[in-house]
């Protein structure tokens, strides 16, 4: 398995499978007709601590068992899967090549160019490329996007899926999948959100991934070591709970009196500070001096008070993003529960959307 299917068009029944440090998320979409999508199923399953760390799968058996459980829990029959690679595990680069090359000539040129940007021997990497189109200021040349990752990292994810009885068909990049899901939501806005500079903050368990986009194209991306696990660990230490209980009660709000003042409010302040700092880094690292809209995603996005404090500190319109906005819902999907769960499924939704590319 390599990246040869990263940019290919697929329309077979597929499930999007997002593997993160905190758990597995699965999404299955279908075509509802007239340009509409339907959310057929979604499900999640937690992972033991340390099974996935820093984007690396450290315990294939534990992760494959979780994938098997989430597949069964979802009720899907689809076994073809789209998987995502963490952005930090993938090198992407836009290069310029001469136009009019044959497929074989283009592949040879890409390999020659790739050796300049990839700090590994080519036989150690999975490599793919996509011709974006003619260069604006030189129509005789074409712009090509290449993507490469260490084979062992790709093969670990493939091994997990296969051990769970699934067949990996496409290997995508998690940040690309998130942008695709957000792009579909942006299309529902007036003028499709054209001309707006949008900052997407995906607040995960340990890492916050920041993407700043203009008309769907990334202007700036980075990761910061901040996530919801900080609040979970505060709950564990303060109330003497087990990790799983602390995580569950954090989501339901079923915590002792004083939790909001002692733990939640400081965490929200820290989160708002991280967002503000990231925006300042964007301003100082690029020629841009404004952000029109902030979107929050990830498991922490729906924590009460987070949207308000981020909007207050940044003075920018802020909202929680639901990747399923505007979709029809399958009979097994509970709408009320989906509202709470949806922001954590941005990547899984984007992966599942590859079915319709």
Number of helices: 10
Low-confidence runs: none
Q: What is the percent of helical residues?
A: 25-40%
> What structural category characterises the helix and strand content?
alpha/beta
Strand element count: 16
Mean pLDDT: 92
The global form is globular
Sheet having the most strands? 6 strands, mixed
Query: For the CA atoms, what is the radius of gyration?
Result: 21 Å
Helix-strand pattern: EEEEEHEEHEEHEHEEEHHHEHEEHH
Distance between the termini: 20 Å
Sequence of strands across the biggest β-sheet: 10-6-1-2-3-16
Into which percentage range does the β-strand content fall? Answer: 25-35%
Q: What does it look like?
A:
β4 (52-53) and β5 form a beta hairpin. The chain starts with 14 loop residues before the first strand and ends in a 5-residue tail after the last helix. The protein has helices at residues 60-74, 103-117, 151-163, 174-186, 229-239, 243-252, 259-285, 306-314, 335-341, 346-352, and strands spanning 15-19, 23-33, 36-46, 52-53, 56-57, 80-85, 90-98, 125-135, 138-150, 167-173, 197-203, 208-214, 217-224, 293-297, 318-320, 328-329. The chain is built from 10 helices and 16 strands. It is α/β, with parallel strands linked by helices. It holds the Pfam family PilM_2. InterPro entries: ATPase_NBD, FtsA/MreB, PilM, SHS2_FtsA. This is Type IV pilus assembly protein PilM. Residues 14-182 form the SHS2 domain.
